[in-house]
Write a structure and sequence with these properties.
This protein is mostly beta strands. Helices cover about 5% and strands about 80% of the residues. The two termini are about 45 Å apart.
């Protein structure tokens, strides 16, 4: 709709411009008609050379002109379209049908038959026996010595230290992993094994025994007695306080102002007033109160556990040993080897690869700060007397029963299995297939195209002529218009006014129009 209004306004302006241009011809008064409605009248000179100065303003006359405007019209046109209809048709196809045929055949095959046989084989047996051997051994004999010992004592004290520690923050995620599973399966197999059959023999044996006995000995011991002491320490405490500071703030202190702007409305300049916001940003110092913190020393009391050495006397039981020789009868366990056979089930494993979703917890490291109380110690050197038990080495001799083995060769009867081949005959049936062609008929549906003619509406933009009345200003010189003014200049000169006002444009005249508001140039010839 807006495009139609713009087209109509352009057509009206064109008609008005043409009318004004036609009015601006050599009619004997030398006037130029302005498109804004203000005529510029020059001297009303006579075209024939006489000068008459009795022109008296302008008059408005209406002329009829034709303009074109766009209108949307709906029309019909013929369109050819393709449609489809379903049709049922028949077709013939060939298939191959398999016909079975059974035949009887004979075949010969070989079978392995097991057979038991016996053989004599030799084997070696380790026979154990006992032998008495003289052996030297070293004994550590304890003895006591009193000596002065210097030792260091760690005296604890507490100190508050700021430390940085790392925290592992867990993050949960899931990943897919492939793993191998061993799937067990069982197999039965025959196994030959050797068995050690035990039997018992009585043996007389002499041995030495360390018989302990206890003696009471007086001993001085230094004991650390724990006592508590109250001490005073100083620590730094974070204390808040209020402080007023100056802060810079930007504030807009602008205002609305009226401005005059020249705009062109329908080809003519006009003056328009509009309100405009003029900003004015001002920086200001504003006082504000903030909370800050400072470190203040604070005195506090704490309890410390201190260990003080104290010398005490106690009776200590010291265990000593004396050597005694004794005799005993020992049952010696001996073994003979026997070979046996057994059926056992063996579990074997096969590997299978599987996939599973595994939750994975990963940790990201964060560093934090905290204040901790650290227990530290200072070293103090002290002296004490103590009894030290030392050992001296003595070499002694004893007889020991040593178990040894000798190899003996023996024989045994072994049964084993031998596979012998045997030939057998069997009858079996064989089925063969023969392909027999067979013809079948079926119905199917297909889409058949056909042409259809239809009337389809469509919209067309048509230029429609329209007659409008256009006002035109002409000069009023106070005289009647001459007849046949456009014919010759002599007819215009016969008027007493000396002008040809209100006549038609001169034949053969041509004017050039420049489209500028209030500016037209005349070039009639």
């Amino acid at each position: 709709m807006s495009h139609r209004l713009l087209g109509f306004a352009a057509a009206v302006c064109f008609v008005m411009t043409a009318a004004v241009a036609n009015a601006d011809v050599n009619c004997g008064c030398g006037q130029v008609a302005s498109p804004c409605g203000d005529p510029v009248v020059s001297s009303c000179g006579d075209p024939c050379g006489s000068s008459v100065g009795n022109c008296c303003g302008t008059t408005i006359q209406y002329r009829t002109c034709t303009v074109y405007e766009n209108q949307m019209q709906t029309r019909m046109r013929t369109v050819c379209r393709t449609k489809y209809r379903a049709e049922t048709r028949t077709r013939t196809y060939t298939i191959n049908r398999r016909v079975p045929k059974t035949e009887q055949k004979t075949r010969t095959y070989t079978v392995m038959v097991p057979k038991q046989q016996t053989r004599t084989e030799s084997y070696t047996v380790c026979v154990p026996y006992t032998e008495e051997v003289e052996q030297k051994y070293v004994v550590c004999v304890p003895y006591e010595e009193t000596m002065t010992q210097t030792y260091n004592v760690q005296v604890p004290y507490t100190e508050e230290v700021e430390e940085k520690y790392t925290v592992q923050v867990p993050v949960q995620s899931t990943r897919t992993e492939t793993y191998t599973v061993c799937v067990p399966h069982e197999e039965t197999m025959t196994q030959t094994y050797n068995v050690q059959v035990p039997y018992t023999e009585d043996v007389t044996q002499t041995y030495n025994v360390q018989v302990p006995y206890t003696e009471k000995v007086e001993q001085k011991v230094t004991v650390m007695v724990q006592t508590q002491e109250e001490r005073t320490g100083t620590r730094m405490v974070c204390q808040p306080y209020q402080e007023t500071i100056q802060r810079t703030v930007c504030r807009d202190t602008g205002s609305w102002q009226t401005q005059t702007v020249n705009v062109c409305v329908r080809g003519c300049p006009q003056t328009v007033c509009r309100r405009v916001w003029v900003p004015n940003v001002v920086r200001e110092q504003v006082p504000c109160t903030v909370t800050r913190y400072r470190q203040v020393p604070q005195t506090y009391k704490y309890t410390v556990c201190v260990n003080k050495p104290t010398t005490q006397t106690r009776m200590v039981n010291v265990t000593k040993c004396r050597t005694e020789t004794r005799t005993r009868t020992v049952k010696v366990q001996k073994c003979r080897t026997e070979q046996r056979t057994r059926n056992c089930t063996v579990t074997k494993m096969r590997q299978e690869t599987r996939t599973r979703e595994v939750p994975v917890t990963t940790c990201k490291t964060e560093t934090r700060t905290r204040k901790v109380k650290v227990q530290k110690c200072r070293t103090e050197q002290r002296t004490r007397n103590c009894t030290v038990t030392k050992m001296r080495q003595e070499t002694r001799v004893r007889k020991v029963q040593v178990q040894k083995q000798r190899q003996e060769t023996r024989q045994r009867q072994v049964t084993y299995c031998v596979m012998e081949p045997q030939t057998k005959t069997e009858t079996f049936n064989v089925t063969t297939y023969t392909c027999v062609p067979e013809t079948k008929t079926e119905n199917y549906t297909c889409q058949v195209p056909y042409q259809v003619t239809e009337q389809v509406p469509y919209t067309v933009c048509v230029r429609v002529p329209k007659t409008v009345q256009v006002p035109v200003r002409v000069p009023n010189c106070g005289c009647a218009p001459a007849n046949n003014c456009c014919g010759a200049a002599s007819s215009c000169c016969g008027n007493s006014c000396g002008s040809c006002c209100g006549c038609q444009p001169s034949c053969g005249s041509r004017c050039r129009l420049f489209r500028r508001c209030r500016l037209f140039r005349r070039c009639c010839r």
